[in-house]
Design a protein that fits this description.
The structure holds two protein chains of two kinds. By secondary structure, chain A is mostly helical. Chain A contains six helices and no strands. By secondary structure, chain B is mostly helical. Helix content of chain B is 88%, strand content 0%. Chain B is built from four helices and no strands. Chains A and B meet through helix 1, helix 2, helix 3, helix 4 and helix 5 of A and helix 1, helix 2 and helix 3 of B.
């Protein structure tokens, strides 16, 4: 029952995040998406995934709140409770297929690999992540320098 | 309760938002929803099958997602500052006008 409630919350938050006019309310709804996703992971036993989702979500939300305040334009129409209720209803309807339908998923093959073993086997990923970080920093520097040169 | 269908619904909502929204920040939120849909599918299948590899690879997926978000947000701020708006249709209109004036000058 708890998973069904979380699924409804997740889809309703996603719909509200996309279709609310005020950008700050959209970001608040997006925080609901991250929190519900983290709880789903946690209840399914993927504790590390839940922690990562939560931490990354908080970072993204902080940046989005700031940029939403900086860049967000005033919405053309005012906040309407009726429209919000309609969006919540639409989200509820959209979550029904996930609750009542099911597809066949492959059954577990072998005994599986523990997370610690998987992390050890994939230790090359660390190098990849460092490369990605350096690439992102380089891109950021290029963008900043390009803008300064333009000015 | 099926997480594959849940992630598919999330993916559909994200793609719909990506195609219909005009605000740049809403487009970014749509991309976040698409990324979340992908990670839900990834983690839930891995954890139901008892594969730790899924969670380990999720670290890579999150890092890539965060790096992409940072670059997209940087570009978004630059575009918004340059054109004075975060509305996609207005930005495209201004770009066309700029191109037309450049062609006329030539």
């Amino acid at each position: 029952m708890i998973f069904e409630i979380l699924a409804i919350g997740l889809i309703v938050s996603a719909v509200l995040a996309l279709f609310l006019d005020e950008i700050v309310y959209s970001v608040a709804a997006l925080s609901g998406v991250f929190v519900f996703t983290a709880i789903i992971y946690l209840l399914n036993g993927a504790i590390f995934a839940a922690i990562f989702q939560f931490v990354v979500g908080i970072g993204t939300l902080a940046v989005l709140f700031l940029s939403g305040e900086m860049l967000g334009e005033k919405p053309s129409r005012k906040f309407s409770p009726l429209r919000t209720a309609g969006l919540i209803g639409a989200g509820f309807l959209l979550s029904l297929p996930a609750i009542f339908l099911s597809v066949s998923t492959p059954s577990p093959v072998g005994s599986g690999v523990a997370l610690s073993d998987a992390l050890w086997n994939l230790r090359g990923v660390d190098v990849l992540l460092q490369g990605l970080l350096i690439l992102t920093i380089a891109l950021g520097i290029i963008i900043v320098l390009y803008e300064r040169r333009k000015k | 309760m099926d997480f594959v269908i849940l992630s598919l619904v999330m993916l559909a909502i994200g793609i719909y938002g990506l195609l219909t929204n005009r605000q740049l920040l809403k487009v970014f939120i749509s991309l976040e929803l698409i990324a979340t849909a992908a990670t839900i599918d990834f983690v839930m299948l891995a954890s139901t099958m008892g594969l730790g590899m899924g969670e380990a690879l999720l670290i890579l997926a999150f890092s890539v997602d965060t790096a992409i978000s940072a670059v997209i947000l940087a570009l978004l701020v630059i575009v918004s500052k340059r054109y004075g708006t975060s509305d996609l249709s207005k930005i495209i209109e201004q770009m066309r006008q700029k191109e037309e004036t450049e062609v006329d000058e030539q």
